[in-house]
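Quick start: what a row looks like.
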Amino acid sequence: MDEPGFPKERVSLQRWLPPALVLLFIPVGLFLAYRWHPRLSHNLAEMFSVVVACSVFMLTWNARKIIDNNYFIFLGIAYLFVGVIDYLHADTFVDVFTTTEHTASIELWFAARFLQSFALLSAPFFVSRKIVPELVLLGFAAVSAAMVALAWTGAFPDFYLPGRGVTDAKSVSDHLVAGVQILSVGTLWRVRAHFDRDVFRMLVLSILFSIAAQLSANLYTDAYEYNSVIGHYLTVVSFFLLYRAIVATGLIRPYS
């Protein structure tokens, strides 16, 4: 229903103009931060993602008793641990890639992306199925702890080697993550009738931007310099759209 006294076109413009302006501001801010210090640009993008992930969890967890679409509860729990691993990734990121130093940061990044992709692919199966949130929380906690342990102990494949740069394993993992997320769009499309139209659109766009961010690694021009400003921009947009779909809409139009 349109707002009283306002034509449909104006209501639509008021709804979409603020996020459009934000999406235009993001690349400018990240580029200026990158020009000042590449690590600042990296950490700004990562911390934004962490805050959004935790916000999604807080909203869905506290509303779990009144949410009848368990997609949101499942995804909210998953994103808590995606955010935790992303924070560990940012905390262990020492600077631009160098020829002499390597931490577990990039392995933690992929641990978060694998967990995120699994959650996006699986969540649509719970739109009309009941889950036990506490058990899902424990399950994701166990899986996340195992993945972090694997990344920290070097059990993951080497995604970067000092003196050589990124490896083929990283390229394969980039495409694997993107492929799983493409499949997740299909599983979400099958249950689109269970979602508010605007929420569904933003969820799909969020996944598409995440896919684009993962594939943007192919644009690297230097194996030793962390220069994926484009990838960071796309990741921030992906998490911003998730925020708009779940947090903003959940607070402003909860009954929709």
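That is the whole record. The first helix runs from residue 8 to 36. Confidence is low (pLDDT under 50) at residues 1-6, 221-227.
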